[in-house]
Amino acid sequence: MKVLATAGDIHALIAEVRLRVPLAAWAQQYGGSVAWRSFHDCSRADLAAADVLVLQRGTSARACWLAEAMHARGGSVVYDIDDLITEIAPHISHHERSAAFLPWVRRCMLNSDLVTVSTARLGAALGGLAPACMEVPNHAFSAGDLPLPLYDEARPVSLLFASSDRLAAEFLYPVLRQLDAHRARLVVVGPPGADFSAAGLQVQRHPLLPRADFIGLARSLPSPLAVIPLEASRFASCKSAVKWFDYAEAGIPTLCSAVPPYTDVVDDGVTARLVPNDEAAWSAALAAAIGDAAWRERVARAARSAVRSRHTVAHTAVAWQQALQEVRRRHCECPPPAPALAWRLKNGLGSVFESGLLRLRRFNRERLARRH
Q1: Is the pLDDT confidence value at 133 over 90?
Q2: Of the candidates 152, 170, 153, the residue with the CA atom closest to the CA atom of residue 161
Q3: Closest CA to 243 of 7, 58, 82
Q4: How many whole angstroms separate alpha carbon 153 and alpha carbon 149?
Q5: Which of 106, 171, 302, 303 lies deepest, with the highest CB count within 10 Å?
Q6: pLDDT tens digits for 326-340?
Q7: 3-state class percentages of the chain: helix first, strand second, coil last, to nearest 5
């Protein structure tokens, strides 16, 4: 089977997690082939060479056109989504722009043969927006045979916070202000660092990093302890527990908010600590974890074992195989109607100018990148 995997930016972290790593594993395990393209670099020739088009988080007219063009050529379309972007939480950076792209999200999903989701909870929340959903879970980053980090009682614990967007974690600020600097220090990766600093907290800040670099940073910290605060909301509950997967694989013990998705995968006190979102509970949980290096090591070992048994890239590759087989079956049983004459005429004219347009788009993006 030939798969064309596409995303707004095929080199972005989310495309790496959802498409590049697991589909490469799928191709190796099942003998398929995968081509990678960003939406605006995808050509009619790319579509013609594929059996299945995978659209990762398509939110534009271009993504919808790709789905329509793939169907017109007799191919199948999978729409992949890992967040409830139809109901974005107010603190998320692109919340205000969501009204503009939601019609395209709905249209892309309806024009797909199958929607792949990161969790069953997300599939249920999408309801009638999708023709059919299948779970393709996220996976842990593989740390190979690296040993667990050191958990030294004599050194301050590194409390690690990381997110690709802002966190609704204001309830934690009073607790963190009370921490003894000789017992714990704060390390923040990504946009939350600005909010922590604005709240008067002393933090070591880092920009967003590629996945492998982030795991390397996390493992290099003295006595690392990951902290994952998450609000209790419908949007948050439909996320996957991929942060815990990565921390567990890296051998880093974790404190998580006691909300889904973490309550769905964590064995409380054994593979992580689930903490109610109130100041007293977080204060007690942080004090207990910081003061007990033996507990941190036990949790790290148990979490790594649990993740390796259930949440590896091999598990995700199996799920992709099932989804790709299902999308081909559905497509054969109910092929899309032939495109209208007007669409075929417009598409024919577009093909005449496509090569030049793609080159112009690449030139403009490279020029903008140089400016930045």
Answers
A1: yes
A2: 170
A3: 82
A4: 13
A5: 303
A6: 999 987 777 666 666
A7: 50, 15, 35
Instruction: Give the number of residues written for the chain.
Output: 372
Lookup: tokens for 361: 């788009």
Residue 209: how many other CB atoms lie within 10 Å: 16
Return the closest-CA partner of residue 311 out of 270, 273, 264, 275.
Answer: 264
Q: Are 136 and 320 in contact (CB under 8 A)?
A: yes
pLDDT value of position 346? 58
**CA separation for the pair 24, 313 (Å, rounded):** 10
Structure-token pair, residue 197? 């600093």
Q: One-letter amino acid identity for 99?
A: A
CB atoms within 10 A of CB 11: 11
- Taking CA atoms, 76 is separated from 53, 54, 326, in Å, by 6, 9, 10
Owner of token pair 């005429």: 345
CA distance 3 to 42: 13
Is the pTM higher than 0.85?
Answer: yes
| pLDDT value at residue 322 | 97
The full DSSP string for 201-263 is --EEEE----HHHHHHHHHHSSSEEEEE----SHHHHTS--HHHHHHHHHT--EEEESSTTHH
Query: Which value, in Å, is the radius of gyration of the alpha carbons in the chain?
Result: 22
Residue type (1 letter), 232 = A
The full set of domains in the chain, from first to last, is 2-139+313-339 (3.40.50.2300), 157-310 (3.40.50.2000)
Residue 295: phi and psi, rounded to 5, are: -65, -40
Q: Return the closest-CA partner of residue 230 out of 220, 212, 215, 242.
A: 242
Closest CA to 343 of 351, 355, 354: 351
- Give kind and range of the element (H or E) at residue 110: helix 98-110
Nearest to 297 by CA among 157, 180, 175, 203: 157
User: Strand 2-7 relative to strand 52-56: parallel, antiparallel, unpaired?
Assistant: parallel
